[in-house]
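Sequence only, no structure available. Ideas?
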Amino acid sequence: MSDLTIFQNNSVPDYLREVGVSDLTKSLMSNAGGGGSKRISLRGKKFRLVVDGEELSTLKAESLDVVIVNATKDISRTFYSKAYDPKADAVPPDCWSKDGVAPDAAAAAPQASKCDSCPQNIKGSGQGNSRACRFSKRLAIALADDLASGVYQLTLPSASIFGDGEKNQMPFNKYVKYVGSQGYSIDTLITTMSFDEDSDSPRVYFDAKRFLHKEEYEATTKLGKSQEAINAVTMTVAQSDHVATPALSAPKPKALPVEEVEATEEPTVRKAAKSEDKPVSKPDLGDILNKFAKVSSPVDDE
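Reply:
I predicted one. C-alpha coordinates follow.
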Protein backbone atom coordinates (compact mmCIF):
# COMPACT_ATOMS: atom_id res chain seq x y z
CA MET A 1 0.00 0.00 0.00
CA SER A 2 1.36 3.41 -0.90
CA ASP A 3 2.58 5.56 1.94
CA LEU A 4 1.55 9.13 0.98
CA THR A 5 3.22 10.49 4.10
CA ILE A 6 6.47 10.63 2.14
CA PHE A 7 5.30 14.02 0.86
CA GLN A 8 4.96 15.40 4.40
CA ASN A 9 7.83 13.84 6.32
CA ASN A 10 10.68 15.66 4.54
CA SER A 11 12.09 12.41 3.14
CA VAL A 12 12.88 13.80 -0.32
CA PRO A 13 16.53 13.21 -1.30
CA ASP A 14 18.77 16.26 -1.35
CA TYR A 15 19.36 16.01 -5.10
CA LEU A 16 15.61 16.29 -5.77
CA ARG A 17 14.85 19.26 -3.52
CA GLU A 18 15.33 21.85 -6.27
CA VAL A 19 13.93 19.80 -9.17
CA GLY A 20 10.28 20.75 -8.74
CA VAL A 21 7.45 19.40 -10.90
CA SER A 22 8.75 17.95 -14.18
CA ASP A 23 7.37 18.77 -17.63
CA LEU A 24 6.23 15.15 -17.91
CA THR A 25 4.15 15.43 -14.75
CA LYS A 26 2.69 18.78 -15.82
CA SER A 27 1.72 17.32 -19.19
CA LEU A 28 0.04 14.30 -17.60
CA MET A 29 -1.73 16.52 -15.05
CA SER A 30 -3.11 18.65 -17.86
CA ASN A 31 -4.41 15.65 -19.76
CA ALA A 32 -5.97 14.29 -16.57
CA GLY A 33 -8.09 17.42 -16.22
CA GLY A 34 -7.85 20.30 -13.76
CA GLY A 35 -4.08 20.11 -13.95
CA GLY A 36 -3.13 23.66 -13.07
CA SER A 37 -4.04 25.33 -16.37
CA LYS A 38 -3.48 29.07 -16.07
CA ARG A 39 -4.62 31.82 -18.36
CA ILE A 40 -5.12 35.55 -18.61
CA SER A 41 -8.67 36.56 -19.49
CA LEU A 42 -9.45 39.92 -21.12
CA ARG A 43 -13.13 39.87 -20.23
CA GLY A 44 -14.61 43.26 -19.42
CA LYS A 45 -11.39 45.02 -20.45
CA LYS A 46 -9.70 43.79 -17.29
CA PHE A 47 -6.71 41.49 -16.89
CA ARG A 48 -8.06 38.49 -14.98
CA LEU A 49 -6.03 35.56 -13.65
CA VAL A 50 -7.87 32.28 -14.23
CA VAL A 51 -6.60 28.95 -12.85
CA ASP A 52 -8.35 25.65 -13.57
CA GLY A 53 -11.36 27.54 -14.88
CA GLU A 54 -11.77 29.63 -11.73
CA GLU A 55 -11.15 33.37 -11.76
CA LEU A 56 -8.79 34.02 -8.86
CA SER A 57 -8.22 37.74 -9.19
CA THR A 58 -8.78 40.81 -11.33
CA LEU A 59 -5.78 43.06 -11.77
CA LYS A 60 -6.53 46.70 -10.99
CA ALA A 61 -3.64 48.00 -13.08
CA GLU A 62 -4.47 49.45 -16.49
CA SER A 63 -1.48 47.67 -18.02
CA LEU A 64 0.35 44.41 -17.53
CA ASP A 65 4.07 43.72 -18.06
CA VAL A 66 4.76 40.28 -19.50
CA VAL A 67 7.35 38.26 -21.39
CA ILE A 68 6.06 36.47 -24.49
CA VAL A 69 7.78 33.07 -24.28
CA ASN A 70 5.88 31.18 -27.01
CA ALA A 71 3.03 31.63 -29.49
CA THR A 72 1.15 29.88 -32.25
CA LYS A 73 2.56 30.59 -35.69
CA ASP A 74 -0.86 30.63 -37.39
CA ILE A 75 -4.14 32.45 -36.78
CA SER A 76 -6.82 30.06 -35.56
CA ARG A 77 -10.55 30.21 -36.34
CA THR A 78 -13.70 29.01 -34.58
CA PHE A 79 -17.35 29.01 -35.62
CA TYR A 80 -20.47 28.35 -33.54
CA SER A 81 -23.84 27.96 -35.25
CA LYS A 82 -26.00 28.55 -32.18
CA ALA A 83 -26.42 31.69 -30.11
CA TYR A 84 -24.25 31.87 -27.01
CA ASP A 85 -26.08 30.92 -23.81
CA PRO A 86 -24.13 31.52 -20.57
CA LYS A 87 -26.41 29.07 -18.73
CA ALA A 88 -25.87 26.20 -21.15
CA ASP A 89 -23.15 23.59 -20.85
CA ALA A 90 -19.97 24.35 -22.75
CA VAL A 91 -19.84 22.74 -26.18
CA PRO A 92 -17.09 22.54 -28.81
CA PRO A 93 -17.36 24.75 -31.90
CA ASP A 94 -19.21 23.41 -34.94
CA CYS A 95 -16.21 24.19 -37.12
CA TRP A 96 -12.69 25.21 -36.26
CA SER A 97 -9.24 25.54 -37.80
CA LYS A 98 -5.82 25.53 -36.17
CA ASP A 99 -4.08 27.20 -39.10
CA GLY A 100 -6.88 29.35 -40.53
CA VAL A 101 -6.54 27.61 -43.89
CA ALA A 102 -8.94 24.68 -43.71
CA PRO A 103 -11.32 23.12 -41.16
CA ASP A 104 -9.74 20.71 -38.74
CA ALA A 105 -10.33 17.04 -39.47
CA ALA A 106 -12.06 16.71 -36.09
CA ALA A 107 -14.55 19.53 -36.77
CA ALA A 108 -18.11 18.26 -36.36
CA ALA A 109 -19.67 20.44 -39.06
CA PRO A 110 -17.16 21.90 -41.54
CA GLN A 111 -18.64 24.95 -43.23
CA ALA A 112 -16.42 24.82 -46.34
CA SER A 113 -13.38 23.03 -47.70
CA LYS A 114 -11.22 26.15 -47.28
CA CYS A 115 -11.54 29.01 -44.80
CA ASP A 116 -11.05 31.75 -47.41
CA SER A 117 -14.09 30.61 -49.41
CA CYS A 118 -16.27 29.87 -46.38
CA PRO A 119 -19.63 31.73 -46.13
CA GLN A 120 -18.94 32.23 -42.42
CA ASN A 121 -15.82 34.23 -43.37
CA ILE A 122 -17.85 36.95 -45.13
CA LYS A 123 -18.38 40.28 -43.40
CA GLY A 124 -21.96 40.49 -42.23
CA SER A 125 -22.27 36.78 -41.51
CA GLY A 126 -21.76 37.53 -37.83
CA GLN A 127 -22.75 40.36 -35.52
CA GLY A 128 -23.17 43.64 -37.35
CA ASN A 129 -20.54 43.79 -40.07
CA SER A 130 -18.32 41.14 -38.48
CA ARG A 131 -17.57 37.60 -39.57
CA ALA A 132 -19.34 34.68 -37.91
CA CYS A 133 -16.05 32.77 -37.86
CA ARG A 134 -13.70 34.30 -35.32
CA PHE A 135 -9.94 34.84 -35.54
CA SER A 136 -7.72 34.23 -32.53
CA LYS A 137 -4.10 33.66 -31.60
CA ARG A 138 -2.69 31.98 -28.53
CA LEU A 139 0.33 33.22 -26.61
CA ALA A 140 2.27 31.70 -23.76
CA ILE A 141 3.31 34.51 -21.45
CA ALA A 142 5.09 34.94 -18.13
CA LEU A 143 4.37 37.75 -15.67
CA ALA A 144 7.38 40.06 -15.67
CA ASP A 145 7.23 40.66 -11.92
CA ASP A 146 6.61 37.00 -11.07
CA LEU A 147 8.47 34.69 -13.45
CA ALA A 148 8.39 31.94 -10.83
CA SER A 149 4.60 31.63 -11.28
CA GLY A 150 5.22 29.96 -14.63
CA VAL A 151 3.35 30.19 -17.93
CA TYR A 152 -0.07 31.69 -18.60
CA GLN A 153 -2.11 31.24 -21.74
CA LEU A 154 -3.48 34.33 -23.45
CA THR A 155 -5.96 34.11 -26.33
CA LEU A 156 -5.93 37.27 -28.42
CA PRO A 157 -9.10 38.32 -30.26
CA SER A 158 -8.83 39.59 -33.83
CA ALA A 159 -8.90 43.27 -32.86
CA SER A 160 -5.75 42.70 -30.77
CA ILE A 161 -3.97 40.93 -33.64
CA PHE A 162 -4.61 43.03 -36.74
CA GLY A 163 -4.45 46.73 -37.60
CA ASP A 164 -1.91 49.55 -37.54
CA GLY A 165 -2.28 51.07 -34.10
CA GLU A 166 -0.34 54.13 -33.03
CA LYS A 167 2.92 55.03 -31.30
CA ASN A 168 3.49 52.74 -28.32
CA GLN A 169 0.10 51.13 -29.01
CA MET A 170 0.48 48.38 -31.58
CA PRO A 171 -1.68 45.31 -32.18
CA PHE A 172 0.27 42.08 -31.94
CA ASN A 173 1.17 41.50 -35.60
CA LYS A 174 2.34 45.09 -36.00
CA TYR A 175 4.36 44.88 -32.79
CA VAL A 176 6.12 41.67 -33.79
CA LYS A 177 6.96 42.99 -37.26
CA TYR A 178 8.35 46.22 -35.88
CA VAL A 179 10.50 44.57 -33.21
CA GLY A 180 11.86 42.11 -35.77
CA SER A 181 12.55 44.86 -38.32
CA GLN A 182 14.77 46.58 -35.74
CA GLY A 183 16.84 43.42 -35.36
CA TYR A 184 15.45 42.37 -31.98
CA SER A 185 13.26 39.54 -30.65
CA ILE A 186 10.03 39.80 -28.67
CA ASP A 187 11.18 37.04 -26.30
CA THR A 188 14.13 39.20 -25.17
CA LEU A 189 11.85 42.03 -24.05
CA ILE A 190 9.47 42.88 -21.28
CA THR A 191 6.32 43.81 -23.16
CA THR A 192 3.63 46.08 -21.75
CA MET A 193 0.05 45.17 -22.62
CA SER A 194 -2.67 47.80 -22.25
CA PHE A 195 -6.30 48.13 -23.27
CA ASP A 196 -7.62 50.50 -25.90
CA GLU A 197 -9.92 52.66 -23.81
CA ASP A 198 -11.74 53.89 -26.93
CA SER A 199 -12.85 50.39 -27.91
CA ASP A 200 -16.16 48.98 -26.71
CA SER A 201 -14.72 45.47 -26.67
CA PRO A 202 -11.42 44.19 -25.25
CA ARG A 203 -8.62 45.33 -27.56
CA VAL A 204 -5.06 44.96 -26.31
CA TYR A 205 -2.06 46.94 -27.53
CA PHE A 206 1.61 46.04 -27.10
CA ASP A 207 4.68 48.15 -26.36
CA ALA A 208 8.34 47.37 -25.60
CA LYS A 209 9.33 48.37 -22.05
CA ARG A 210 12.90 47.14 -21.63
CA PHE A 211 15.28 44.32 -22.44
CA LEU A 212 15.48 41.33 -20.13
CA HIS A 213 18.36 40.99 -17.71
CA LYS A 214 20.52 37.91 -18.24
CA GLU A 215 18.93 35.96 -15.39
CA GLU A 216 15.44 36.84 -16.63
CA TYR A 217 16.30 35.78 -20.17
CA GLU A 218 17.66 32.44 -19.01
CA ALA A 219 14.53 31.80 -16.95
CA THR A 220 12.05 32.79 -19.67
CA THR A 221 13.91 30.85 -22.36
CA LYS A 222 13.49 27.75 -20.22
CA LEU A 223 9.82 28.54 -19.73
CA GLY A 224 9.29 28.92 -23.48
CA LYS A 225 10.55 25.39 -24.10
CA SER A 226 8.55 23.83 -21.28
CA GLN A 227 5.61 21.49 -21.76
CA GLU A 228 3.52 24.08 -19.95
CA ALA A 229 4.21 26.62 -22.72
CA ILE A 230 3.58 24.06 -25.45
CA ASN A 231 0.23 23.18 -23.90
CA ALA A 232 -0.65 26.88 -23.66
CA VAL A 233 -0.30 27.47 -27.39
CA THR A 234 -1.78 24.17 -28.55
CA MET A 235 -5.31 24.73 -29.79
CA THR A 236 -7.99 22.37 -28.51
CA VAL A 237 -11.77 22.63 -28.77
CA ALA A 238 -12.25 22.11 -25.05
CA GLN A 239 -13.56 24.95 -22.92
CA SER A 240 -10.72 26.91 -21.34
CA ASP A 241 -12.63 28.00 -18.28
CA HIS A 242 -16.11 28.37 -16.84
CA VAL A 243 -16.13 32.06 -15.99
CA ALA A 244 -19.63 33.40 -16.49
CA THR A 245 -19.86 35.92 -19.30
CA PRO A 246 -22.99 37.94 -20.21
CA ALA A 247 -24.66 37.05 -23.49
CA LEU A 248 -23.99 39.46 -26.33
CA SER A 249 -26.84 41.78 -27.27
CA ALA A 250 -25.78 42.62 -30.82
CA PRO A 251 -27.91 41.29 -33.70
CA LYS A 252 -27.36 37.78 -35.04
CA PRO A 253 -25.27 36.51 -32.09
CA LYS A 254 -23.20 33.42 -32.71
CA ALA A 255 -22.38 30.87 -30.06
CA LEU A 256 -18.94 31.57 -28.66
CA PRO A 257 -16.92 29.83 -25.95
CA VAL A 258 -15.95 31.97 -22.97
CA GLU A 259 -12.51 32.77 -24.34
CA GLU A 260 -13.93 33.77 -27.73
CA VAL A 261 -16.65 36.05 -26.38
CA GLU A 262 -13.85 38.50 -25.72
CA ALA A 263 -13.36 38.85 -29.48
CA THR A 264 -16.21 41.00 -30.73
CA GLU A 265 -14.60 42.84 -33.61
CA GLU A 266 -12.92 41.93 -36.84
CA PRO A 267 -9.61 43.42 -38.03
CA THR A 268 -9.88 47.15 -38.54
CA VAL A 269 -7.46 50.01 -38.99
CA ARG A 270 -7.81 52.40 -36.10
CA LYS A 271 -8.47 55.97 -37.26
CA ALA A 272 -6.02 58.58 -36.08
CA ALA A 273 -7.27 61.60 -34.18
CA LYS A 274 -8.14 64.57 -36.39
CA SER A 275 -5.45 66.67 -34.77
CA GLU A 276 -2.75 64.24 -35.91
CA ASP A 277 -2.17 64.93 -39.57
CA LYS A 278 1.35 63.56 -39.67
CA PRO A 279 2.31 59.91 -39.20
CA VAL A 280 3.36 59.17 -35.66
CA SER A 281 6.94 57.99 -35.24
CA LYS A 282 7.59 54.42 -34.19
CA PRO A 283 9.06 53.60 -30.77
CA ASP A 284 12.83 53.50 -30.96
CA LEU A 285 14.10 50.21 -29.60
CA GLY A 286 17.61 51.51 -30.07
CA ASP A 287 16.91 54.05 -27.35
CA ILE A 288 15.62 51.25 -25.16
CA LEU A 289 18.81 49.30 -25.76
CA ASN A 290 21.03 52.25 -24.89
CA LYS A 291 19.02 52.99 -21.79
CA PHE A 292 18.59 49.53 -20.39
CA ALA A 293 21.22 47.13 -21.81
CA LYS A 294 24.33 48.29 -19.94
CA VAL A 295 27.27 45.92 -20.08
CA SER A 296 28.86 46.75 -16.74
CA SER A 297 25.86 46.23 -14.47
CA PRO A 298 22.24 45.06 -14.61
CA VAL A 299 19.53 47.67 -15.15
CA ASP A 300 16.99 48.40 -12.42
CA ASP A 301 13.39 47.49 -13.20
CA GLU A 302 11.10 50.38 -14.00
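The beta strands are 38-41, 48-51, 54-58, 63-71, 76-79, 95-97, 134-143, 152-157, 189-195, 204-211.
Hope that gets you unstuck.
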